[in-house]
Amino acid sequence: MDGFVVPNNSASLAFDNIDLSYGRWDNQQLYRIKDFALLGEQYADTTESSLVCLATQTSVERLNSLPQVAANWQGKMSVALFAAGPEEFVVLQYFVTYMRLCFANIRENATFHLLTPRDFDKLPRMSALPPNMKGKFDCQYPDRTLKALLKFRSLKTLQWRQRNTYPQNHMRNLARKGCQTKYVFLTDIDIVPSTNSVPQLNHFFRTANCTKSCAYVIPTFEIDVRATFPRSKTALVRLIRKGLARPFHEKVFIYNQYATNFSKWLSPNTNETEVSVSHIVTNFEFLYEPFYISVDNAPAHDERFLGYGFTRNSQVYEMHIAGYQFYVLTPVFTGHWGLQRKQARPAWREQQNNANRRKFDVFKSEIFVRYKNDPRLLLKAKKNQILVK
Predict the structure, then answer these.
(1) Which of 121, 305, 346, 350 is the most core-located residue (most Cβ within 10 A)?
(2) What are 171-188's pLDDT values in tens digits?
(3) Is 326 part of any domain?
(4) Helices (H), the chain
(5) What is the pTM of this model?
């Protein structure tokens, strides 16, 4: 559809029947949660063709990534949305309506859940968009459309966002539990799956036979904005050789993905159509945080971690301590736009990271007790054995 204009009739907007004054609380009573606030038209379909659901989460300003994700992921999606206040909720209403009218796969397969802060009602209200927004909802330009909508947030709302942390792990848990399939592929909103992933993964998981707790890693790569998103592993390898793609976080924080062993994954693979296990992760690194698929009985993301730092890797570390085995799949992959560079972190982000680091020490002690598995004791035992010899 081209040149679409959002109707002014509020009854036609997404979430028009949602009352945000109530909802279930998170465990700390910091956020209200609305599960299944808006269902995809085909989301309730439980056919055998839908073994994997993509679970993702986002704040309002990053939601423009969903159309590209949905273009490549032709299957079920569970999307957790965060609205800081009434203004952001109105932006979500209009932009989700826009996406559902413009993109069939979002309308049919994406189900949305909402999370709002406890002081949601204390922030400014915006009942509807000004008339000059008419004609600015072009289906060809989701980035431009969202940018125009975000301009209507007040300074007070923006200041609240700067002062308060984004509840990443709350959002991940909400998206995960919104999936109604056996397997869940948990990502962030700006992680784009490779094309044809859904049929390839469905075929693989029909015969997957895991005898213990398993997680299937999907390798992630940074892609230069000057390039076209690669439609195959072969095309991705060509971009890497040209310097237009590289492993995710390779330059900014190598431990983030290092254990995936990209060199092994990039070795020649003749089969581009069927998913298989490339190799097993044997060199698990502390702070490893791959994007993976698993049966949704994996440990939840600990909601004590707010903002940035130790949010995803704490959950993956608990999986490691619990005895999960990580298998790297090929030829499927995911991409993240932009070759990232090291740069100084803003003070607020470093503060959040330091606060979460202190929480992690407590978290780590708890999971060692929970699983009766303390790597420090194993290391000490090995050292003693060496001394005896």
Answers:
(1) 305
(2) 999 999 999 899 999 999
(3) yes
(4) 66-72, 86-102, 104-109, 142-150, 155-163, 168-177, 197-207, 233-241, 262-265, 312-322, 347-371, 375-388
(5) 0.92
